[in-house]
Amino acid sequence: MDKEVIAKICEKVYKRFPETEKKKPKVKPYDGDLSLLLFNYKVKTADGLSMSRTVRVIANPKGKIIKITTSR
Questions:
Q1: How many C-alpha atoms does 36 have within 13 Å on its Cβ side?
Q2: d(CA 55, CA 44)
C-alpha cells in the first residue's frame, strides 16, 4: 500500500479516534487486494489502570475504508 494512501486513511482514523494520533499503524495484506491497518494504544481506565486497545481498519488500495472495528 502506498504511503500517501496510508496517510489519508490515518487522518480519517485520527479524527474518529483521537487517542490513536501519532501512532503508526501496522499494515498487513488482507483478503484479495484489501489491506488491514492495526493501531495499538493504551488508555487509562476510571480506576487508574491501563488497558490495551486496538483499532482495526480494512481498506482498499485507493484508500476507501471498508470497515473499522475496535477492541474494548
A1: 12
A2: 16
On the 0-12 / 13-18 / 19+ scale of CB atoms within 10 A, 37 is buried
Amino acid at 50: S
CB 17 within 8 A of CB 25: no
Cα torsion angle, 25, 19, 53, 70, sign: negative
Arithmetic mean of pLDDT over the chain: 94
The sign of the dihedral angle between the CA atoms of 59, 23, 16, 9 is: negative
Beta bridge partners of 58: 36, 67
Taking a C-beta distance cutoff of 8 angstroms, is the pair 15, 3 a contact? no
pTM score of the predicted model? 0.88
